[in-house]
Design a protein that fits this description.
alpha+beta; PH-domain like
C-alpha cells in the first residue's frame, strides 16, 4: 500500500445545520398551520405529526453519518484509494502514473459552506476507473491536490531520468573511445622536409638572428657565429 501521506473524509456537518433549521421551521408550521386554516386537528394529531417528522429527521441524521463515515480517501506515496460502502464495501485504487485528469470543482453550494469537490480520472480502466471526492473541506481539497500533483510530477521525473540513463552511458562510452584513440603525430616542419635546401635556409636565418643580436649588444663581439660554424661543418660533411 505504501506510506500514508494524507487521509480525509467527506464533510457532512453542513447537512446537520440545514436539517436543524429546516426541522425548526417545519415543526412550527405543523403546530400553527392547522389553527391558521381551521383544519380542526386535535393536539394529539399535531403532536403525532411533529413526532413523526422528528423521527424521520433523526433517521436522516443517522443515515448521513453512517454513509459518510464509511467513505475514506487515502493518498499514499504510490497510489490513490477510495473506500466506501456500509453493507457492500468497495475499494478503488488508482496509481499516480494512470491519472490523466485532476479537476477541482466549487459550485455555489460548495462556496457557501467553504467546500470543494475533486474529480480524478485515470486512463485504461473504463468509466469505473475514477474517483470522485465530493464535499471536501477546502483545506483538505487543496492539500490532496498538492500531494497528487507533486507525486505525479515526481513519477514523471523518475521515468525521464530512467529514459535518459542509456544516453548518458553512450556519451561516457564515446568519451572513453576518444581517450583510447592514439594522438596523431604532428607533421614535420616543411623546412626540415626540404633536405639540404632547408638546412641552408635555417643557417641563413640563424646568421641573420646572430647579426641582429650582435648589433643590439646581446652577444659579445668575440663570440663565434653559430650559423657560420654550422655552415662550415655542413660543407665539410658534403665534401
Amino acid at each position: 500500500m505504501g506510506m500514508l501521506l494524507k487521509s480525509c473524509k467527506p464533510f457532512y456537518g453542513h447537512y446537520f445545520t440545514i436539517l436543524k433549521y429546516a426541522s425548526l421551521v417545519i415543526v412550527l408550521l405543523i403546530f400553527f398551520l392547522p389553527f391558521y386554516f381551521n383544519l380542526g386537528l386535535s393536539l394529539e394529531v399535531i403532536l403525532a405529526l411533529a413526532g413523526a417528522y422528528l423521527l424521520l429527521a433523526l433517521a436522516s441524521v443517522l443515515y448521513i453519518k453512517i454513509v459518510n463515515d464509511a467513505i475514506t480517501y487515502n493518498a499514499t506515496d504510490g497510489e490513490l484509494t477510495k473506500d466506501e460502502g456500509v453493507l457492500q464495501k468497495k475499494h478503488t485504487v488508482i496509481p499516480y502514473s494512470k491519472i490523466s485528469n485532476l479537476i477541482l470543482k466549487r459550485g455555489l453550494f460548495d462556496r457557501f459552506f467553504n467546500l470543494a469537490a475533486l474529480q480524478i480520472d485515470a486512463t485504461g480502466g473504463g468509466s469505473d476507473y475514477e474517483i470522485m471526492m465530493p464535499r471536501l473541506t477546502l483545506k483538505d481539497a487543496n492539500a490532496m491536490t498538492t500531494i497528487i500533483n507533486d507525486l505525479i510530477a515526481r513519477q514523471q521525473g523518475g521515468q525521464g531520468e530512467q529514459a535518459a540513463a542509456p544516453l548518458e552511458g553512450e556519451k561516457e562510452e564515446t568519451k572513453e573511445e576518444k581517450k583510447e584513440e592514439k594522438p596523431k603525430p604532428a607533421p614535420l616542419p616543411r623546412l626540415y622536409a626540404l633536405g639540404d635546401m632547408g638546412r641552408d635556409k635555417l643557417e641563413e636565418l640563424e646568421h641573420m638572428a646572430y647579426t641582429r643580436q650582435t648589433d643590439a649588444g646581446a652577444v659579445p663581439p668575440g663570440e663565434p657565429d653559430a650559423g657560420a660554424t654550422r655552415r662550415k661543418q655542413t660543407k665539410g660533411k658534403r665534401k
